[in-house]
Amino acid sequence: MVAGRHVDFGDGSRLELFRHGHQVRAINNQPGYRLTLDPHLPPGHLYPQHRLQDDPPVHTRIDYSKVHGRWGLFVNSTDASVSSCAKRLIVDHFEGTHQTNSTTKFLDRYVGGGRLDALLTE
After folding, report:
1. Are strands 34-37 and 5-8 parallel, antiparallel or unpaired?
2. Which of 24, 41, 49, 95 has the fewest CB atoms in 10 Å of its CB?
């Protein structure tokens, strides 16, 4: 579990994860800045199939807004695990505060005799 960790972004903002009862809270324990562990998921959802005991799925509204340039409660998001949520928040903050370049390539899922399609539908 990543509880008790601090990530300093260098611009005065900090991501802090810690346990509080049955919740994991994040970002300086601000009201509303909560992570819900093991949120209710629809039947057949894939997250529980790959769940790790110490790294459960998590639901949160916390996000870094590139438009507003700050942390806030913006969108509902469910991540596969607490660690993947922390990674997403770190990457979102980095992309919002640094110049990044990206390359996009669209692929036909049936390319290569359907091997890609077979991987995506396993």
Report:
1. unpaired
2. 49
Instruction: Quote the pLDDT of residue 10.
Output: 65
What are the two backbone dihedrals, phi and then psi, of residue 17, each rounded to the nearest 5 degrees? -115, 130
Show the tokens assigned to 112: 């290569």
Separation of alpha carbons 50 and 40, rounded Å: 15
**pTM (two decimals):** 0.60
Q: Which residues of the chain form beta strands (DSSP E)?
A: 5-8, 14-20, 23-26, 34-37, 58-65, 70-79
Which residues, in sequence order, are bridge partners of residue 18? 25
SS3 call for 103: coil
Q: Are 38 and 47 in contact (CB under 8 A)?
A: no
State the Cα angle at 13 between 91 and 30, rounded to 5°. 100
